[in-house]
User: What shape does this take?
Amino acid sequence: MEVTLRKMTLDDLGEILELENELFSPPWSYNSFVAELESDKRSCLVAECQAKIIGYSIGAIFYDEVHIMSIGVTRSFQKSQVATKLMIEMINFAKSNLIDSIVLEVRASNKPAIGLYTKFGFGPVAVRRNYYTKPVEDALVLILNGVCGVEYEFRFNNLKEGLKTK
Ligand SMILES: CC(C)(COP(=O)(O)OP(=O)(O)OC[C@H]1O[C@@H](n2cnc3c(N)ncnc32)[C@H](O)[C@@H]1OP(=O)(O)O)[C@@H](O)C(=O)NCCC(=O)NCCS
Assistant: This one.
């Protein structure tokens, strides 16, 4: 089944909120998504399969970094490389804005997400104690530097090639 990516619109928010409630605690509100869609310097994407939204990602430029604000894939499509596709576009978003660093917070126990980010070359730089609520948990701050460099280009090409062969 073909998975395609496109820009998120306000009309998508009904479906996205369903997904958000499935995947995150506490979930973002409708207004949080609207604020992202209405802000400059954002990459807001959805992944679709057979006209149904199965995933999404939001990246934001703050100063000289891209922050991954959110990324999620519906359970029935997880482990099918959908987040990998969304991450490739996140990297392209940074590169096209000449931004060399991407940063994010992740729940310390979130093995699938940490696995995803590690695959893209992110590493831990800090722990924010009790950062999350419902349940209370530490956040790991992960960063990827050198996104625009030649060395990362090699890794990035391998990730894109890996996607084609799956
Ligand atoms: C994290 C998440 C986005 C991954 O989405 P996905 O589409 O399943 O990820 P992919 O299939 O592209 O997998 C990419 C890599 O992530 C890692 N990964 C994905 N699922 C994993 C799992 N269950 N356990 C361990 N590693 C996992 C692997 O390294 C995988 O690479 P591989 O396929 O070469 O082994 C998804 O699990 C999700 O939506 N989780 C709930 C929301 C969330 O936690 N978002 C992140 C918040 S920081």
